[in-house]
Amino acid sequence: MCLSGFSPSKDEANLAGLVVAEMERLGYDEAYVDAAGNAIGRIRGHEEGPGWLLLTHLDHVDVGDEANWPYPPFSGHVDEAGRLWGRGAVDIKGPLAATVYGAAAARAAGPPPRDVWVASTVQEELGGAGAARLVPELKEQVAAAVIAESSTLQVIYGHRGVARVRLVFEGRPHHAALSRSADNPNYALARFLERLAVAQRNRDPVLGASSITPTILQADTTSANRTPGKVTLILDWRTTGESPEEMRELLEYLTRGMNVSIEVPPLWEHGELENTPGVRTEPDHPLVVQMEEVRRRVLGPGPRPGLWAFATDGRYTHAAGIPTVGFGPGDPTLAHTEHEYIAVEQLLAGARYYAALVQEKPAVR
After folding, report:
1. Enclosing H/E stretch for 249
2. Which of 256, 275, 294 marks a domain boundary?
3. Same domain assignment for residues 33 and 148
4. pTM of the shown model
């Protein structure tokens, strides 16, 4: 099975077919591509009742500058240290393969107690269109969701939400030689950024503090001697429970006295601007405890359960009321970089972990 191949967002069909074909070869009871393009497999358990969902995705981000890669980004090269290189090795074809083969290993040992669903969705990197379609269809058949994003084999009990917000600072264009600071929106932008840097962030006892990071900046001038009429700023807001109304209220406070328009997307918005909530599972939840016990038994001592810095499709399972916890092989700090690899040893450890986990009933309240 190819662990690193070409499957950018909205072009995942070939990989979905490959995943389903491998599930069929491994003896899954069901394997199919759904109407959204998600690759889905099912291993039937010997008891009635909702079971496990092992959830990954199919798409990957751009490779960046190929000259910066030590090996070609779609070569799947394994170096002398046992590291498999390539775009998608960590995010997320390595963990994807671990779920597919881990579940198959559990089946080979005898039917698990409950059904095991292994799913890999489309467009996760664009906000999760595949998961939005998948989760309602499987909700009643799933007792626990395991988000198999890379975590360096650490159990993960949550992550913050993500919103992208737009601010447009307006002024009056003029010849730069006149230097009318009151009419130049760059000065208002600078005052806002100073206020933002020291503004109090929302804090959650489980997820920690929100972060608000300026990212994209655009001005409506290409002439060095003409001031802009508009300066547009995009903020990456990692949320810990703020409502769109609360987000707008803070931005209005920080831009008081400025000529600015503020665009805060509603919850579950996707696109250039987005707003999706995070995952917040209590650290002492029975599922977290169960997954940590399995990790210690199968893999030995390791890091205590913690949080992801990034967002995942777990936001959809969590919002649907499905207990959601994360675990995956590979170092997540390598995702989206030109030095992306996964240690083969970790990949195999992840497969062993999933095989052991699904041989138990999901521990839920």
Report:
1. helix 244-254
2. 275
3. yes
4. 0.93
- Cis ω on the peptide bond leading into residue 322 (within 30° of 0)? no
Place of tokens 């995956």: 328
Q: What confidence tens digit (pLDDT) does each residue in 55-82 have?
A: 999 999 999 999 999 999 999 999 999 9
**Residue 128 to residue 242: CA distance in whole angstroms:** 20
Number of domains in the chain: 2
Look over the chain and give the mean of its residue pLDDT values, rounded to a whole number.
96
DSSP E strands in 220-363: the ranges are: 230-239, 260-263, 275-276, 279-280, 306-308, 324-326, 341-343
Burial (CB count within 10 angstroms: exposed 0-12, middle 13-18, buried 19+), residue 170: middle
Q: Phi first, then psi: give them for residue 112, nearest 5 degrees.
A: -70, 165
Provide DSSP, 155-202: -EEEE-EEEEEEEEEE----BGGG--GGG-HHHHHHHHHHHHHHPPPP
Domain region containing 261: 161-275
Cβ atoms of 350 and 154 closer than 8 Å: no
> Which of 241, 275, 309 lies at the terminal end of a domain, its last residue?
275
Shared domain for 100 and 35, answered yes or no, is yes
189 & 152 share domain: no
